[in-house]
Amino acid sequence: MGGLPAGKVKPAEHDYAEWERRADALAVLMGGKGVTVDERRRHIEALPPEAYDKLSYYERWIVALTQALLQRGIITTEELARKMTQVERRG
Fold this sequence. Notes:
Layout: H1 18-32, H2 37-45, H3 49-54, H4 57-71, H5 77-90
């Protein structure tokens, strides 16, 4: 987490999953609409330590982008819950 020593970074190459590519594209698009890297970082650093450690890099991005949408009133928690239910039903 921000400001805390985390040890050495072990770079690892991997093929990106489609959802990871989409998360990256969404971050770029939202950046064009004013969601800055600093705002994303603030949301990521606000995660509880256990959530931060459990989530992958791009999962943290999704959380941060979601928080930005919620805080700006672009989506509501109810809309998000409905969409999550739809996605879960698709399997």
